[in-house]
Every structure is written in structure tokens, then in C-alpha cells.
Specification:
Elements lengths: L7 E6 L8 H8 L16 H9 L8 E6 L3 H7 L8 E4 L5 H15 L4 E6 L2 E3 L2 H17 L4 E6 L9 E12 L2 E11 L3 H9 L3 E10 H11 L1 H11 L7 H9 L7 H6 L6 E6 L4 E3 L3 H10 L20
Parallel strand pairs: 1-2, 1-4, 2-3, 6-10
Antiparallel strand pairs: 4-9, 5-11, 6-9, 7-8, 7-9, 8-10
Helix pairs in contact: 4-7, 4-8, 7-8
Length: about 325
């Protein structure tokens, strides 16, 4: 996809608290360290796995990691080798809306032609190279459909009620061999009966990995969260200046929590598309039961060049 990868940026969302997993982390590590900074498998943290996965497609200088100030000590340990300007610090966690909007402004200032992929830092993915190939396919499609966001939907292997689901509609468009579908509806952690129906009807798990043009994503914030956009628009003129830290502090003072999925995605399904991620094992490590399940399932995984090696469960300390 000529010109697209040259302008592809990543936003790694690492500012969450991970409260549901805290008892598990405390019992395993004797620590209050947020899950994204923990080596839940292998000898790298979830955040380092996410960075390594993203760097299969995106160079380090175009990967911005969003952290929060209370986690800064952990972030310094994990992000010591990041290029200048690649770590964006929020004064506090105000959910994913501000956590995306702040780095998005940095990206647009540096590259107005940017494409952006949103990457949560707490996902467990086995076939990492194949997963990032799907991200590349999504970016290639977005290059042909500017006013569109593409979500990656993972093909489910069970009716899981702890995940968000995407109900796909008719074909949105095609690019070469890649076919994407309209998003008909989101289902957030549906009840057991609904989950069974979604699974049987071929719906997809919502990975919350989103690809789109940076300017279009900013336009959605302007249309759908005008007050939030106004606050950050005033901040944008100070980015990269000596007044940036003070301006960010003032913006976050009293800033409401805004969830990106509810405020943006759920309100604008007509311009959303979903790409089905095939032959990739994906998990959202949001609860202890899922972590335990995956660690047990992949107790032995032969070296394959896909990011995992051997004895995952045995390496957890």
C-alpha cells in the first residue's frame, strides 16, 4: 500500500488501572503494579509485548505510548528505550477518550497525513505477525475510504459473555482480497442467552483495535464530543512548547471521564467497518479466569516466530 505505511502511527493505550485483575496481580506478584507493567507470561510485561508486536509494522518513532502520572515509576522501567516524544503522560486516567485524543493531537502536529491504529496494552495474541498483517490490511482499506474507521473483530471460539461483540452487516467495501463489513451493532458484555445467539450467528469479538485516518478520528471527536474537543483544541497550540506541561495539567483539571467506545464508536456505526481477524488466537486479559485459562492452555508452545516461545505458565513468577 504505497504511502500508507510511511504515515502509519500507533497509539498504545497503557493508562488503565486494570482493577478487575488487581487481586490476581497481588496474589502472583505481591504488588499493586498495573497489569500492563507485569510479566504475566515470559519475561516481558504486557506493554513490552504490545510494543514488540506493533514494531513488526510501525517504527518506534511513530509509536506513542499513553501512560498516567501515578504509574510513572513503572513506565520509566518499561519505556526507558523509547525515542524522544514517544511517551505521552496524562496527569490522571480519564478513560480512553482523553487517552486517545491527547496523543492524536501530537500525531497530527507531526504528520497531518497520518493513519492511526489504536492498540490496547493488555491483549494476549499468539500469532502476532498474522495479527499485524490484518492491521496492515485495515490501513490499506482506510487509504481507499478516508471517512471510515475499521475495527478488527476476532473470530470467537466460544460464546464469551465477558467480551464486547460486533454484529456485522453487509459488505462495506473491498481492497484487493480484503473485504470489510458494515458494523450493524455493538453488544457490550451481553447476557448468557444473547451471547449464545451472537456466537451462533457468526458475530465477532471486539478487539478495540481501530484503524483510521488521524484527521477523521479527530473530526469524530469534534462532532460527537464537542466539549471534550474544545478543551483539547485549546491545548493543541501549546504542544511542543515550554507551556505544554502546564496546559495539559489545566486541561485535565476537572476533566470528565469519556469512554471512547461509548462516546464515539457506539454513536457513529454508519461510518464504521469491521475486518474479520482469522487464524489468530486473541484474548483480552481483563479478568483472572481468562488469564488462568490461557496460561494453562499454552503451558507449552513451540518456538514459531510468532512472539511466544515455550512454557508460558512455568515462566510466571
Amino acid at each position: 500500500m504505497p504511502g500508507t505505511t510511511d504515515h502509519l502511527w500507533g497509539i498504545i493505550l497503557a493508562g488503565g488501572e486494570g482493577k478487575r485483575l488487581q487481586p490476581f496481580i497481588r496474589s502472583r506478584f505481591g504488588s499493586e503494579r498495573p497489569k500492563q507493567y507485569c510479566p504475566l507470561f515470559g519475561d516481558r510485561s504486557m506493554l513490552r509485548h504490545t510494543l514488540a508486536r506493533a514494531e513488526r509494522l510501525i517504527p518506534p518513532e511513530r509509536l506513542l505510548t499513553v501512560v498516567t502520572r501515578p504509574h510513572l515509576d513503572y513506565a520509566r522501567e518499561e519505556l526507558y528505550d523509547r525515542p524522544p516524544g514517544a511517551v505521552i503522560v496524562q496527569p490522571s486516567n480519564r478513560e480512553t477518550g482523553p487517552g486517545i485524543l491527547l496523543p492524536l493531537l501530537h500525531i497530527l502536529q507531526r504528520d497531518p497525513r497520518a493513519f492511526v491504529v489504536l492498540l490496547p496494552a493488555d491483549h494476549f495474541i499468539v500469532e502476532e505477525e498474522r495479527f499485524m498483517a490484518h492491521v496492515e490490511e485495515a490501513a490499506a482499506f482506510v487509504a481507499t475510504a478516508p471517512g471510515c474507521l475499521v475495527l478488527l473483530g476476532s473470530q470467537p471460539d466460544r460464546p464469551e459473555p465477558q467480551y464486547g461483540w460486533i454484529e456485522a452487516g453487509d459488505v462495506f467495501g473491498r481492497h484487493h482480497r480484503t473485504e470489510v463489513y458494515r458494523v450493524r451493532r455493538f453488544w457490550e458484555k451481553p447476557d448468557h442467552h444473547t451471547t449464545q445467539t451472537l456466537y451462533l450467528n457468526g458475530c465477532l469479538w471486539n478487539t478495540m483495535v481501530v484503524v483510521g485516518r488521524a484527521w477523521w478520528l479527530l473530526s469524530l471527536f469534534k462532532m460527537l464530543t464537542p466539549e471534550l474537543f474544545r478543551l483539547f483544541d485549546r491545548l493543541s497550540s501549546h504542544l511542543g512548547s515550554p507551556k505544554e506541561a502546564e496546559a495539559v495539567e489545566q486541561t485535565y483539571a476537572g476533566l470528565p471521564a469519556v469512554d471512547f467506545s461509548r462516546a464515539i464508536l457506539a454513536k457513529h456505526p454508519s461510518r464504521l467497518a469491521v475486518l474479520s481477524v482469522k487464524d489468530v488466537y486473541w484474548s483480552d486479559w481483563g479478568n483472572p479466569a481468562q488469564v488462568e485459562l490461557d496460561l494453562a492452555r499454552f503451558d507449552f508452545w513451540p518456538a514459531s516466530g510468532n512472539g511466544l516461545q515455550v512454557g508460558l505458565a512455568a515462566q510466571v513468577v
